[in-house]
Design a protein that fits this description.
The protein is of the alpha/beta class. It has 12 helices and 13 strands. Bound molecules: NADP nicotinamide-adenine-dinucleotide phosphate.
Length: 392
C-alpha cells in the first residue's frame, strides 16, 4: 500500500511538472534543415511574443531573456498565478487576462510574431488557440514534454521515435495516468501542426527542468544535501543515467529558436554528455566547499522497500521508465541548446530556496516530510550496511 502511494506520488509529481510518458506511430517528425542554427542576438529583429501562461516556472525565465534581447512580450493567464521570480520584468509585459477553458477574447484581432504555448494542459486548449491565432501570428511554439515517449523503451529515444496517441487497452490505473499526459502532449503537438503547418511550428520537448522557481520539490534534495556534505546516499545502479536541463537553458533556447525560425521538433535534454547518477552526485557536490563521500545504494528491491522510486534527476530504470534518461539530445545540440555548468544550477537553486521567493511554510513542510530521502537517509545507510553484511 505504501509502495503504491509512493509510486502514485512519483507519477503525479512527474506529470504535474510536465514529465510523463510516450507514443507510437505518428508523423510528428520533421526538422527544417534550412533553419539557421547559431544562437546570435545581433542582427535580429524585435519580436512581439505572446506567451500563453508565462507566470510560473519556465515562463518568467523566457520573459527575462526575451526582454534582455530587445523583444516585446504579452502573457495570457487567468491572473491567478503570481510570479515569484523575475518579478521586475513583468512591469514591461502586457498582461492579458482570460481563460483557456472558455474565454479567449483578449487574443482576438491581435497580431504577434510568435506565440509560446506553455500552459497547454488539454488538447482542446491548444486546438482552440492555434486555430484562433493561425492567421494573425507567425510561429506557434508548443511546450511539450519528453513525456510523449512514455513508456520509455530502449536506449536512444529520439524525435523520430513513434508516439502513442491513443490510450492502449489493458493498462493499470497508474499506467493510464502516466500515458494520459503523453497522449495529451502528443495530440496537442498535432493540433499545433494542423493549424500552423510544419513550416510555422516549433515543438520543444523538455525533460525534467530544474532551477530557480521550480514549483515541485522534487530536485531540491540535492542542493540541500550537497551543501551539508558528509556521506551522501546515492540511489541507483552504477550504470544508471540521469537527464535534466536547467530551466534557464531551456527558456533561453526557446527564444533563440524563435529568432532563428528553427521550425521542427526538439528534445530539450541535458546534460550534454551522458552522466551516471554517481557522476551527477560527485559533480554536484563540488558546488560547495564541504567534504563529501558517496554510498551508492544499488539494489532496486532495497530502494523500493524504502519507498525510493526516484530522486530527480534519478528515476528507477526499469519497466516503463527504463529509457526515461536515455533520450537523445543530438538534434538539440545541432540547433543551439547550450548548458550551464551543473554547479551553477545547484548553487542558484540552493540560493533561491533560501530566499524569500520560497515561503517559510513550503520550506518547513519540506524539512518536516518524514518520507523524504533526506529524512530517511541515516536510517537507510545503517540498514544498507547491514544489508551489505548479509549479502557478503
Ligand atoms: N517542469 C518540468 O520539468 C516540465 C518538463 C517538461 C515539460 N513541461 C511543460 O512545461 C510547460 C511550462 O510549465 P510552467 O508551469 O513552467 O509554465 P508557465 O508558463 O510559467 O506557467 C503556467 C501558466 O499557465 C497559466 N494557466 C493555468 N491555467 C490557465 C487557464 N485555464 N487559462 C489561462 N492560463 C492558465 C498560469 O497562470 P494562471 O494560473 O494565472 O492562469 C501560468 O501562467 C508546461 O506545459 C509543462 O507541461 C514542464
Amino acid at each position: 500500500m505504501k509502495k503504491n502511494n509512493s509510486r502514485r506520488t512519483f507519477i503525479k509529481k512527474s506529470t504535474l511538472a510536465g514529465l510523463a510518458i510516450p507514443l507510437l506511430g505518428s508523423t510528428l517528425v520533421y526538422c527544417d534543415s534550412k533553419a539557421k542554427k547559431e544562437p546570435k542576438s545581433s542582427d535580429k529583429k524585435q519580436l512581439n511574443i505572446l506567451i500563453l501562461g508565462g507566470t510560473s516556472f519556465l515562463g518568467p525565465h523566457q520573459i527575462a531573456y526575451a526582454i534582455s534581447r530587445g523583444h516585446k512580450v504579452s502573457t495570457f493567464t487567468r491572473g491567478k498565478t503570481i510570479p515569484t521570480i523575475h518579478q521586475e520584468v513583468f512591469k514591461n509585459v502586457e498582461q492579458l487576462i482570460g481563460d483557456r477553458e472558455n474565454n479567449l477574447k483578449a487574443l482576438e484581432n491581435r497580431t504577434w510574431d510568435v506565440v509560446i504555448d506553455n500552459s497547454g494542459r488539454k488538447v482542446q486548449w491548444t486546438k482552440d488557440t492555434a486555430n484562433l491565432l493561425k492567421d494573425n501570428v507567425g510561429i506557434y511554439m508548443y511546450t511539450s514534454s519528453t513525456g510523449v515517449y512514455y513508456p520509455y523503451k530502449g536506449n536512444d529515444i529520439s524525435e523520430d521515435t513513434p508516439l502513442v496517441l491513443n490510450m492502449p487497452e489493458g493498462l493499470t490505473e497508474d499506467q493510464e495516468y502516466e500515458q494520459d499526459y503523453g497522449i495529451m502532449k502528443g495530440n496537442s503537438e498535432l493540433e499545433t501542426i494542423k493549424a500552423f503547418g510544419k513550416e510555422r511550428s516549433i515543438i520543444v520537448r523538455p525533460t525534467y527542468m530544474i532551477g530557480p522557481g521550480d514549483k515541485t520539490d522534487r530536485f531540491i534534495h540535492w542542493p540541500l544535501r550537497f551543501a551539508q556534505g558528509g556521506n551522501i546516499l546515492v540511489p541507483g545502479k552504477k550504470e544508471d543515467l540521469v537527464q535534466y536541463c536547467d530551466v534557464r537553458d531551456v527558456a533561453e533556447w526557446f527564444i533563440r529558436l524563435a529568432e532563428n525560425k528553427s521550425y521542427g521538433i526538439y528534445n530539450a535534454v541535458g546534460p550534454k554528455e551522458k552522466q551516471t547518477v554517481l557522476e551527477f552526485a560527485k559533480e554536484g557536490a563540488k558546488t560547495f566547499d564541504t567534504e563529501a563521500s558517496f554510498t551508492l545504494v544499488d539494489d532496486y528491491e532495497f530502494l523500493k522497500d524504502n519507498n525510493i522510486f526516484f530522486t530527480i534527476p534519478w528515476v528507477i530504470a526499469e519497466g516503463d521508465h527504463y529509457g526515461s534518461a536515455r533520450i537523445s539530445n543530438t538534434r538539440a545540440l545541432e540547433n543551439g541548446l547550450t548548458y550551464r555548468p551543473l554547479k551553477d544550477t545547484v548553487k542558484d537553486t540552493y540560493d533561491w530556496w533560501l530566499s524569500d521567493a520560497v515561503s517559510d511554510e513550503r520550506k518547513q513542510n519540506y524539512a518536516n516530510d518524514p518520507n523524504s530521502l533526506m529524512a530517511k537517509e541515516n536510517e537507510m545507510l545503517s540498514k544498507w550496511k547491514k544489508h551489505q553484511g548479509i549479502k557478503n
